[in-house]
């Protein structure tokens, strides 16, 4: 199986969320004025689709998760070099995110987590195999 991956998430402020992820290297696609959703690319096959809460609820057919008390998903993205893991998490923190501790070296994998300004949990990881 091959194809693209689309991660859909609700955000409180669409413009702020787009700016946050653009600072991490996501590439925003053009969007019309007044849009309630925005798409960004990360690499060749990963796409992040951000929705204002009402648009997410309409799309998902369910309520938005309260990220202050629950996690609906942890998104992990691989990068080419180990150094990028820490660089990207530090960039996330300087752009309004929260680090989830130091990196974890599991021998075959180095990863480090953070939460974006809307409370969604992410990690960047580098596989050594």
What is the secondary structure topology, with strand pairs?
Blueprint: E1 5-10, H1 14-23, E2 27-28, E3 37-42, E4 46-51, H2 53-60, E5 74-78, H3 82-94, E6 98-99, E7 104-105, E8 109-115, E9 121-127
Parallel strand pairs: 1-4, 5-9
Antiparallel strand pairs: 2-3, 3-4, 6-8, 7-8, 8-9
Brief account:
24% of the residues lie in helices and 33% in strands. It is built from three helices and nine strands, in the order E-H-E-E-E-H-E-H-E-E-E-E.
Given the structure, what is the number of helices?
A: 3
Beta fraction of the residues?
25-35%
* Total beta strand runs: 9
Cα radius of gyration in angstroms: 15 Å
Mean pLDDT, nearest integer?
95
Largest sheet: 5 strands, mixed
- What is the string of SSEs from the N terminus onward? EHEEEHEHEEEE
- What does the oligomeric state look like here? single chain
Give the CA-based shape: globular
Indicate the low-confidence ranges by residue numbers.
none
**Helical content (DSSP H or I, runs of 4+):** 10-25%
End-to-end separation: 22 Å
Structural class category:
alpha+beta
Please describe what this structure looks like.
The protein is of the alpha+beta class. It is built from three helices and nine strands. The strands form two sheets. Strands 5, 6, 7, 8 and 9 form a five-stranded mixed beta sheet that branches. The two termini are 22 Å apart. 23% of the residues are buried. The model has no long low-confidence stretch (mean pLDDT 95).
Features:
alpha+beta, four-stranded mixed beta sheet, globular, 3 helices
